[in-house]
Amino acid sequence: MEVVVVVGDFGLRNDWHVVADQANLVGVDQFDARLLGADITVRRQARDGFEVVRNDTGEPVHSAQRYGYIWACLGTPEREILFIPEATEPNRHLVTAGSIAVRVSGLRAVENFLDMAHFPFLHTGWLGEEPHTEVTPYKVELTAEDELVATECKFFQPVSFPTAKGGFIVEYTYKVFRPYTVALYKTNSVVTHRRDVIVLFVQPVDEENCVAHPFLCYVKEGVDVATVRAFTQLIFGQDKPILENQVPKRLPLDPRAETPIRADAVSVSYRRWLRDRSITYGAIPANA
Questions:
Q1: Which of 103, 179, 190, 124 is nearest to 148 (CA)?
Q2: Which helix (H) or strand (E) holds 120?
Q3: Which 3 state secondary structure label does DSSP give 54?
Q4: How many Å apart are CA 130 and CA 153, to the nearest integer?
Q5: Which residues of 220-247 are buried (b: 16+ CB within 10 A; e: fewer)?
Q6: Are strands 49-54 and 92-96 parallel, antiparallel or unpaired?
Q7: Beta carbons within 10 angstroms of residue 108's beta carbon
């Protein structure tokens, strides 16, 4: 199958982005949002569900409904909405975990999602704790599908999930599918041979603001939807103030801004991946 690579900021306009969680639209006729600096409105339609229109022209843009979200494309879609195989498995909870507005570039939010080193210090007692602070070596590679993948990521977590029975070494795989879309696959605390999946759809509101939309595909055994949602909101609630205090708000792409240490391998690769694809929206370009 041909791999479609959306290059540059113009490509972002021709890609799909989440603009609303349908769970937040119950009983709501319209919802104001912003995408890539453009003000838009999500309007309920009696027959077709929802439409998305630009506020400046009143013209509809391409829109769709999938995974419990409203999606929009400001330009002409050059590829399909991301397919998530785990979302088709009947023995998983499929949960939208709220929409978290964050006053920082969406690229910063993705990079934070990829960072394991902060677990013991920011998510103390949950995703990490001292003295287990070392990020052991892991692998980062670019796939034939143009996805950035980090494998063999392992970290001791005292409570990887509320149903976990004590701490253990959790294994992660990270995948960056698109500039503003990233996922992690982590060891399930009950069915340890399976992975829970968290996909983060980041809505670039503008270059220094975003909305994070976590989509959860969790193995059903031993946990309910409310617990899955509450745990995710707890973790993102801890990340939000740290992200909003990062300076600068946009992600620097100059190689000199990278910290070439082992723990940052996936972050360094992500910034390089963005540079190679000429993505500058939400970033400070390398030549700035």
A1: 179
A2: helix 119-122
A3: strand
A4: 18
A5: eeebeeebbbebbeebbeebbeebeebe
A6: unpaired
A7: 23
Evaluate whether 108 touches 246 at the Cβ level (below 8 Å): yes
Residue 102 CB-density burial (10 A; 0-12 exposed, 13-18 middle, 19+ buried)? buried
In a 13 Å sphere around the CA of 85, the CA atoms on its Cβ side amount to 2
Q: Output the pLDDT for position 2.
A: 47
Contact present, 74 and 61 (Cβ < 8 Å)? yes
Which residue type sits at 246?
A: Q
Q: Which helix (H) or strand (E) holds 174?
A: strand 168-178
In this structure, the chain runs to a length of 288
The CA distance from 67 to 86, in Å, is: 11
Q: Helix %, strand %, coil % for the chain, to 5?
A: 20, 40, 40
Mean pLDDT of the chain: 87
How far, in Å, are 121, 181, 277 from residue 264 at the CA level?
16, 19, 20
Q: Cβ–Cβ contacts within 10 Å for residue 260, how many?
A: 8
Which residues does residue 69 pair with via DSSP β-bridges, in sequence order? Answer: 21, 66
One-letter amino acid identity for 257? A
For residue 258, pLDDT beyond 90: no
Which pLDDT belongs to residue 168? 67
Q: CB pairs under 8 A, 24+ apart, for 130-139?
A: 132/156, 135/262, 135/263, 137/262, 138/265, 138/266
For residues 214 and 11, give the distance between their C-alpha atoms in angstroms, rounded to a whole number: 23
Q: What is the C-alpha separation between 71 and 197, in angstroms, rounded? A: 20
Asked whether the predicted pLDDT for residue 1 surpasses 50, the reply is no
